[in-house]
């Protein structure tokens, strides 16, 4: 007997311009004790499906058709009072962002006790006692003490544990987890996912895991449903989905994700174009406009969900057969340094740079109450034509370093040397001259372009500031830039809001390229984009690097993205550079326990690899950047920590070649040659 | 073995075509016109403006010379809204009063907004000590009950039109200043502003090409409310005697006069002016609200 | 939190100091000299000189300011020659009445505006919302005295159920013993204040309603009343504190208008009469007082804000 059975669900959203068919005929079942993964990109309808189950649709949304059978009732037609008894009681839900999902004015104890009081009718004291139990259950340290805490006093990972606690307090039969870890750091993500697994077993629940991350699905789901444009396109047991992919979209998606275990010379697969407009869906297969296999039949009629194996249905007229595969072009262009070819010298040197931000507090005179030690004594060298990848979790200082390189911040001490010149000392015209060689591409495609300016003006602005040519020459240059980044030159007349996120990142890249810089800092260039669009941008960046002999500083928390582009990799933790070396060194022979932990926690879209990883690699929470731990900053979370780690800060020690790491107990053997 | 290389459909750039919505302002106009209250406000304002400025072309009355023979007459065919205690035709006086009220209201809104925006943008952009000092100054002026002081001034003299506008503007610029400062503070750290710095752009360019244009929405909404507030304050000040000297007509002055006859039942000397004030102020408030909602729509569409 | 409060007190002190400077400057910008204004236009030069000497008006400006400040710090707001009383005496006499008027109106206004705002947010764009918005718009758009006049015209003149004038008893006890006379003044000020608040309350409540934690509350299966009370109300109250602070100047100004209209024996009326009479010590003394009250009101509002918002309380 299934826990949940969805039959032909259609959820629509009324909008001024029409009705958006967000969920258009979805059917599946969840059996007790299993984790079902619902995967797809933004706009595919996965979140709407989850909200439909809970009856939490936005005011303009409504269930147009279908049944949601749960515990002998049809939730789609249930009245509100009866639905209220189900919510929080028989079905629990965990949302993506724990900071905004918790009431800032109520203690976490009360927020958990509230659910218990509502559904179990117990006294206040009993409810609070149960809240304490729940906190312990979700792994909150010192639960009794934490009952009286407010959400803002806890870190992101702990807050999400509270959310999980709220969802589980009444021991529901089904838990819906909607992107539960997307807003969290990678090492915390791993902890939370493990917690969900453990609780599922302990409480005998079923879990519906909604996410866009194929790696998470590979590791945690028993069965998977892939959604695209409101429909289910493929459904299978996890192993089957990854190894015997049938639907072209699923295959394309898997092929477009950079993986830690694939050769770097292999180019990422890209899915061209954009998902369809769900207010006016196409008549035929919704993926056809972007599909390589599409034929007239696909454009004409919608393929039904079916196939020879009832446990592995797919909706496609031309599924990928067991023998075919998506071959990918080998990268023929060389971007300097990748294959070891000679590069002409050091372009940028970071020499013992330190950046501290004062935190002001207190009386009239604004005494500094402390400092955030964002970057603490980092030294790096970047060679011309290569790509440096800076990787680490939130608060590690990588973004601050990026900003110091393009002179948006000045180092508190130390020097940033560009072509031998210390840019921290420059000002006025000298600085302006140097600026054209150092450009940046920002993370947020929605905030990095002035919404009031046309694209043409946005791209001409750097040229105008730097006095590049006449107006006609500037316009010609802009047209060239647009063509290079894969956008139509007619885009100059349009405004940023008329473009998608991926297209805006292209515009951002064009802007960074406008002054023909020598170095571009790319700060999380693809993190805000959908998975299938990421590969478009990454491939574009790679192409441009070869064409213009660019040097990149690539900042990301995503190790697999870094690996795809970087020659040299620097791993940062809480302001310190804990490991640096060539890509091969860091990924294949990590020396620092943190690096190993990061490599282990990153979800890989391969079920076997994922399930082979057991045990948490990195425990605990990130310490405060204002009071970092003494000695080695990583020691509070390191499985190898000993007394000396608290007493003494480990120096950067050399391993082979340029590979260095700062650890008292490194995982590789220290070379005889002392570090320079 | 099928082999697929990346081949986009010919003619389409790899990034795809733009989603192609509308130019921002078109969305705002559409959202605005769909807001019934806002539309009603706009129509009302236009109607009032026509009444005040075009009306006298059709309805000639003498608003300069008093006429003792015609005082306090009830409404009749000759004087549809009667006459007041100085013999002026009330209907005609409403039109004349409206002219001065609207003129003053618009002038004050423009002046106050201009001053306030400049002040706020500078304070917000440069931050630090300059910001602290400038904002403390605003706080000080806000704390002083200036209306109290005006009442005092009213007992001294009657102002000219220009002085009245100046005084009201000095009262009103504080609102936009604070608002714009807040907006500037939050816009200052946006990535597109930082991008201009990385290109070597100077502060002036950032302020005038990027910050001010992006606060235009808030400024326009606020300016609309300023007009409404100015007309309202003008009426209050007139009541306390601080208004344009006779024979200039103002709605507030008509009210001040008419109130003396409350107990005599000369309703036509009170309620018409009252109605005009309320209608006009309400209309501008509806427009301002409508504009604000339309702007939110624009911001939400991504 | 302590740091926040200390910082706010510091700012308040600076603002009040600034106010005193400005008032001081204004005093000396008076058309005609202070002496003439107080003694009369027919004062002889000797009388003016004597007056100036006696009152320290012949010394240098900065020195005069210091004296002025010193006086203020000792609670001396000046001396009214026309009424032959110190300004403090006048103020102290009328203060309780003002506290009654403004206090009662403020409390009533909050009791009305907050629930109405929440109802408007919950039933957004329905009839209730439109009606409430419409009414508050009209109230907001009316010049303050207009509302009072209309209420007088209706209740006092036409229906004759309430007196048009506020109680004139000299003590607060006396004032309270005539509740009928208090109804219209308090009602007028309350309605004006409600109009001031309601626009902000509505948008604040709508903002709060769209927050994620409301969705979480629904996901818990809570009853609507529990959601509104425990989740929405508490979060909507936080900006109310700031709102009251910002509205202080407006409320005090409207208070003056109401007092004048209903002949309410408060500081506003005293000020008005003094202004008409040309009694400058009262005029400036009360100005400084009202400014100080405004700043104090803001300060209290900010402290309330700090107490209500746990994010500031536990910093």
Task: Summarize the structure in words.
The complex is a heterotrimer of chains A (676), B (302) and C (315). Chain A has 676 residues and is of the alpha/beta class. Chain A has a domain at 346-577: 3-Layer(aba) Sandwich (Rossmann fold), CATH 3.40.50. Helix content of chain A is 32%, strand content 22%. In chain A, the strands form four sheets. Chain A has an eight-stranded mixed sheet, sandwiched between helices. In chain A, α4 crosses α5 and α17 (501-513) runs parallel beside α18 (531-548). Mean pLDDT of chain A is 87; it is low at 327-342 and 362-366. Chain B is an all-alpha fold and 302 residues long. Chain B is built from twelve helices and no strands. Chain B has helices spanning 24-34, 36-53, 55-58, 90-126, 128-143, 146-154, 161-172, 174-188, 191-198, 203-239, 251-259, 271-300. In chain B, α2 (36-53) packs across α12. The relative contact order of chain B is 0.16. Chain C is an all-alpha fold. Chain C has one domain: MetI-like (MetI-like fold, Orthogonal Bundle). Chain C contains 14 helices and two strands. Chain C has a two-stranded antiparallel sheet. In chain C, α1 packs antiparallel against α13 (280-308), α11 runs parallel beside α12 and α12 (267-277) packs antiparallel against α13. Chain C starts with a helix and ends with a helix. The mean pLDDT of chain C is 80. Chains in contact: A-B, A-C, B-C. At the A-B interface, α14, β16, α15 and α17 of A face α9 and α10 of B.
In short:
The complex is a heterotrimer of chains A (676), B (302) and C (315). Helix content of chain A is 32%, strand content 22%.
Which spans of chain A of ≥5 residues are poorly predicted at pLDDT below 50? Answer: 327-342, 362-366
In quaternary terms, these chains amount to heterotrimer
Distance between the termini of chain B: 42 Å
Q: Mind telling me the C-alpha Rg of chain B?
A: 26 Å
Mean pLDDT of chain A: 87
Topology diagram in text:
The complex is a heterotrimer of chains A (676), B (302) and C (315).
Chain A: E1 4-15, E2 18-30, E3 35-39, H1 46-54, E4 61-70, E5 73-74, H2 80-86, E6 91-94, H3 98-101, H4 108-120, H5 124-137, H6 143-146, H7 156-168, E7 174-178, H8 186-203, E8 206-211, H9 214-220, E9 223-228, E10 231-237, H10 238-243, H11 248-256, H12 296-300, E11 346-361, E12 367-383, E13 387-391, H13 398-405, E14 413-418, E15 421-422, H14 428-435, E16 438-441, H15 455-466, H16 471-484, H17 501-513, E17 519-523, H18 531-548, E18 551-556, H19 559-565, E19 568-573, E20 576-582, H20 583-588, H21 593-601, H22 607-612, H23 643-647, E21 652-654, E22 660-662
Parallel strand pairs in A: 3-8, 3-9, 6-7, 7-8, 13-18, 13-19, 16-17, 17-18
Antiparallel strand pairs in A: 1-2, 1-4, 4-5, 9-10, 11-12, 11-14, 14-15, 19-20, 20-22, 21-22
Chain B: H1 24-34, H2 36-53, H3 55-58, H4 90-126, H5 128-143, H6 146-154, H7 161-172, H8 174-188, H9 191-198, H10 203-239, H11 251-259, H12 271-300
Helix pairs in contact in B: 1-12, 2-4, 2-12, 4-5, 4-7, 4-8, 4-10, 8-10, 10-11, 10-12, 11-12
Chain C: H1 2-28, H2 34-39, H3 45-54, H4 61-73, E1 79-80, E2 85-86, H5 87-122, H6 127-141, H7 144-158, H8 172-176, H9 179-209, H10 212-219, H11 224-262, H12 267-277, H13 280-308, H14 310-313
Antiparallel strand pairs in C: 1-2
């Amino acid at each position: 007997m299934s826990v949940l059975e969805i039959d032909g669900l259609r959820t629509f959203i009324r909008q001024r311009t029409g009705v958006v068919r967000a969920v258009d005929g979805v059917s599946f079942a969840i059996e007790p004790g299993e984790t079902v993964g619902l995967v797809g990109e933004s706009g595919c309808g996965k979140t709407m499906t989850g909200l439909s189950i809970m009856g939490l649709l936005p005011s303009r949304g409504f269930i147009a058709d279908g049944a949601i059978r749960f515990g002998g009732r049809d939730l789609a037609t249930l009245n509100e009072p009866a639905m209220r008894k189900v919510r929080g009681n028989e079905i629990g839900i965990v949302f993506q962002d724990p900071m905004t999902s918790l009431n800032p004015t109520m203690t976490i104890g009360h927020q958990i006790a509230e659910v218990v009081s509502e559904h179990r009718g117990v006294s206040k004291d009993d409810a609070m006692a149960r809240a304490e139990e729940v906190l312990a259950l979700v792994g909150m340290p010192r639960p009794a003490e934490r009952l009286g805490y407010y959400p803002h006093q806890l870190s992101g990972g702990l807050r999400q544990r509270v959310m999980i606690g709220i969802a589980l307090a009444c021991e529901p039969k089904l838990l819906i987890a909607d992107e539960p870890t997307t807003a969290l750091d990678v090492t915390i993500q791993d902890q939370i996912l493990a917690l969900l697994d453990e609780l599922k077993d302990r409480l005998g629940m079923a879990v519906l895991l909604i996410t866009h991350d194929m790696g998470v699905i590979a590791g945690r789901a028993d069965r998977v449903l892939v959604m695209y444009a409101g429909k289910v396109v493929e459904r299978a047991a996890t192993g089957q989905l990854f190894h015997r992919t049938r639907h072209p979209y699923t295959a394309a998606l898997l092929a477009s994700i950079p993986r830690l275990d694939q050769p770097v010379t292999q180019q990422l697969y890209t899915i061209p174009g954009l998902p369809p407009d769900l207010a006016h869906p196409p008549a035929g297969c919704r993926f056809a406009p972007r599909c390589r296999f599409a034929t007239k039949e696909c454009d004409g009629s919608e393929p039904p969900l079916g196939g020879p194996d009832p446990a592995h249905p797919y909706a496609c007229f031309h599924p990928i057969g067991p023998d075919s595969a998506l071959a990918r072009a080998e990268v023929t262009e060389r971007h300097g340094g990748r294959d070891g070819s000679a590069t002409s010298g050091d372009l940028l040197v970071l020499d013992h740079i330190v950046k501290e931000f004062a935190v002001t507090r207190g009386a009239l005179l604004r005494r500094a109450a402390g400092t955030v030690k964002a970057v603490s004594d980092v030294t790096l060298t970047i060679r011309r034509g290569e790509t440096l990848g800076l990787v680490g979790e939130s608060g590690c200082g990588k973004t601050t370093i990026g900003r110091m390189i393009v002179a948006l911040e000045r180092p508190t001490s130390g020097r940033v040397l560009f072509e031998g010149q210390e840019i921290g000392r420059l000002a006025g015209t000298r600085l302006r001259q140097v600026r054209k060689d150092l450009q940046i591409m920002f993370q947020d495609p929605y905030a990095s372009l002035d919404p009031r300016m046309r694209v043409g003006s946005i791209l001409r602005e750097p040229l105008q500031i730097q006095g590049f040519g006449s107006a006609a020459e500037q316009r010609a240059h802009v047209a060239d830039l647009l063509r290079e980044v894969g956008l139509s030159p007619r885009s100059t007349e349009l405004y940023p809001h008329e473009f998608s996120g991926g297209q805006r990142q292209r515009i951002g890249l064009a802007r960074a390229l406008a002054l023909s810089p020598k170095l571009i800092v790319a700060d999380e260039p693809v993190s805000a984009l959908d998975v299938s669009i990421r590969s478009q941008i990454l491939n574009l960046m790679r192409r441009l690097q070869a064409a213009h002999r660019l040097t990149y500083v690539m900042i990301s928390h995503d190790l697999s993205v870094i690996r795809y582009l970087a020659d040299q990799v620097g791993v940062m933790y809480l302001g310190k550079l804990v490991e640096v070396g060539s890509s091969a060194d860091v990924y294949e022979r990590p020396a620092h326990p943190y690096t190993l932990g990061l490599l282990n926690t990153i979800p890989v879209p391969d079920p076997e690899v994922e399930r082979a990883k057991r045990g948490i690699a990195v425990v605990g929470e990130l310490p405060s950047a204002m009071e970092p731990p003494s000695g080695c900053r990583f020691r509070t979370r390191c499985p190898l920590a000993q007394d000396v780690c608290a007493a003494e800060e480990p120096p950067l020690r050399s391993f082979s070649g340029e590979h260095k790491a700062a650890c008292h107990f490194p995982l590789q053997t220290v070379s005889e040659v002392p570090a320079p | 073995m099928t082999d697929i290389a990346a081949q986009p459909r010919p003619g389409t750039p790899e990034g795809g075509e733009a989603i192609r919505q509308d130019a921002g302002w078109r969305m705002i106009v559409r959202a605005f016109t769909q807001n019934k209250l806002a539309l009603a406000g706009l129509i009302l304002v236009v109607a009032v403006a026509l009444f005040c400025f075009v009306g006298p072309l059709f309805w000639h009355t003498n608003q300069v010379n008093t006429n003792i023979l015609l005082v306090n007459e009830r409404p009749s065919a000759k004087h549809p809204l009667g006459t007041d205690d100085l013999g002026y035709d009330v209907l005609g006086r409403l039109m004349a009063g409206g002219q001065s009220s609207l003129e003053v209201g618009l002038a004050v809104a423009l002046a106050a907004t201009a001053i306030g925006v400049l002040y706020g943008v500078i304070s917000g952009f440069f931050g630090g000590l300059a910001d602290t000092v400038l904002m403390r100054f605003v706080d000080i002026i806000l704390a002083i009950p200036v209306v109290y002081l005006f009442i005092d001034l009213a007992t001294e003299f009657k102002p000219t039109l220009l002085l009245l506008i100046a005084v009201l503007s000095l009262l009103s610029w504080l609102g936009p200043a604070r608002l714009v400062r807040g907006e500037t503070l939050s816009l200052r750290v946006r990535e597109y502003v930082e991008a201009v710095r990385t290109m070597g752009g100077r502060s002036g360019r950032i302020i005038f090409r990027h910050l001010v244009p992006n606060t235009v929405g808030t400024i326009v909404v606020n300016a609309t409310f300023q007009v409404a507030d100015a007309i309202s304050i003008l009426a209050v000040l007139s009541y306390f005697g601080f208004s344009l000297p006779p024979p200039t007509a103002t709605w507030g002055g008509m009210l001040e006069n008419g109130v003396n006859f409350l107990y005599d039942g000369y309703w036509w000397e009170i309620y018409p002016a009252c109605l005009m004030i309320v209608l006009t102020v309400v209309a501008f408030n509806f427009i301002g609200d409508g504009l604000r909602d339309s702007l939110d729509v624009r911001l939400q569409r991504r | 939190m302590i740091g926040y409060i200390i910082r706010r007190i510091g700012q308040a002190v600076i603002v009040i100091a600034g106010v005193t400077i400005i008032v001081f400057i204004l005093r000396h910008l008076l058309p005609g000299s202070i002496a003439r204004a107080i003694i009369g236009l027919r004062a002889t030069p000797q009388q003016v000189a004597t007056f100036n000497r006696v009152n320290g008006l012949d010394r240098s400006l900065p020195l005069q300011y210091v004296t002025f400040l010193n006086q203020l710090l000792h609670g001396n707001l000046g001396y009214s020659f026309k009424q032959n009383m110190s300004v403090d005496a006048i103020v102290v006499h009328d203060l309780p009445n003002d506290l009654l008027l403004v206090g009662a109106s403020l409390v009533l206004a909050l009791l009305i505006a907050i629930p109405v705002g929440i109802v408007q947010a919950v039933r957004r764009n329905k009839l209730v919302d439109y009606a409430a918005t419409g009414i508050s718009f009209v109230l907001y758009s009316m010049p303050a005295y207009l509302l009072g006049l209309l209420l007088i015209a209706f209740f006092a003149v036409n229906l004759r159920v309430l007196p048009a004038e506020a109680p004139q008893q000299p003590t607060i006890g006396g004032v309270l013993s005539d509740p009928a006379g208090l109804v219209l003044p308090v009602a007028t000020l309350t309605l004006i204040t409600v109009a001031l608040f309601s626009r902000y309350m509505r948008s604040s409540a709508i903002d709060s309603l769209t927050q994620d934690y409301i969705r979480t509350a629904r996901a818990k299966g809570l009853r609507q009343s529990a959601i509104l009370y425990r989740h929405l109300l508490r979060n909507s109250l936080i900006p109310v504190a700031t709102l009251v602070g910002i509205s202080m100047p407006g409320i005090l100004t409207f208070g003056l208008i109401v007092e004048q209209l209903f002949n309410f024996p408060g500081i506003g009326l005293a000020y008005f009469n003094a202004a008409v009479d040309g009694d400058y010590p009262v005029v400036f003394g009360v100005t400084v007082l009202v400014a100080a009250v405004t700043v104090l009101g803001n300060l209290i509002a900010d402290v309330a804000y700090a107490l209500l918002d746990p994010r500031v309380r536990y910093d």
